[in-house]
Write a structure and sequence with these properties.
The protein is mainly alpha-helical. It has one domain. It is about 50% helix and about 5% strand. The chain is built from 12 helices and 11 strands. The strands form 5 sheets. A 3-stranded mixed beta sheet has the order 5-8-11. A hairpin with a 7-residue loop joins strand 6 and strand 7. Helix 3 runs antiparallel to helix 4 and helix 6 packs across helix 9. The longest helix is centred in the middle third of the chain and has 31 residues. The protein is globular, with a radius of gyration of 23 Å. The N terminus is likely disordered.
Amino acid sequence: MSTIDTATVPPIGGTVAPPAALAAGDPDQPAPSRRWLAVAFGVFATILGAMLAVAETGPGALRDPNPIGTHWVNGNPRANEPFLGFDYWPQLWQVVGFGGAAILLGIFGWRSWKSRQMHNGLLVTFAAGGMYFFDPFYNWLGYFPTDPRFLHIPHGTIPFWSDLAPTFEPVFFFPLYMVWLVYPALLTHWIWRRLQARAERRKGPGSWIQRHRLISLLIVCKCVTFAIDLAGFRTGTVTEAFIFSQAPGPLIDGGDTSQAQLLWEPLLFELTMMATCLLFYRDAQGRTPQRRIARRIRSFARFPRTTEFAAAWSIIAIAYVICLIGMGTLRFTGQTDKLAQPWPYEDTQVYDPDGLYEQAGHPGLKRAGDGNWNGTRPTYDGTRP
């Protein structure tokens, strides 16, 4: 019979610490309070509300005044017919982003309210949402335009940040980061706990997965997040919610509008998902990595929750910066790229910083975009639509 007390395993929110740590409790737990909860949700609501106040749909300042209009989807000119004949992919994506984040914040917020302590799941969810800060840089480095029908920050509103995006910076990407990073982490821990229990039933407490808890967690996380990230981005490109307008191989459907990275993007962005997964891990003392780091920072004594949040945000941010460095290497080293043809958003100017769409003879008004600083330009592989 397994020695793991499955009754102590929560359905969501992270890995359970060893029994000794659970019995001892966490000596660094701040005094019970709910004031911080109101502040945290207030800051979140303020940021989201400010973006919604200025948000708009449609191409706006980036409109092509003479769109071709190959197909018309809800009054919008598009190069391709909608995937599966469904016209409302942008709306569905936004429901997933806002709805999925609302579930996480609701569950973890309620648990925090009841316990008068910050639930680790809530801290990780807010930290994951904080990765939205890096999103324009990701979109810029990855040649990653998005559908102008998304509710987005208008071009020209925040120079040097949202304007870096090839087309627009969608507002729903803020909550979508919570969904994209936290749900795979929770699934990983669910699978890992069951693998632990199975290994202990078969081989006892000395099994490899029990002796190497962190390594085994990372292996499971690698498998789970690679599959989820690849599937998620593939779904996005076939629905044309977003595209990789130009990209080096290997690719799925290379040269088509729906082309998607088969290797580089899943390997690089997956680092942020793995970092998020680590934030749910607890050591033998019942402490998470962010708690261990926060304890060493002087501000922890006065602002324990803020310091722990900053530590969690920094862990994911470091992984994201590594991802961006890798993507920058692909962009700035003169790779041979395939173009996503045809450009799908015919009412929006074609993002063409390297002149490859012009070289390919693609119709439509072109724009180089902001941050057009490439020293070594990617080259066009010559594929025609």
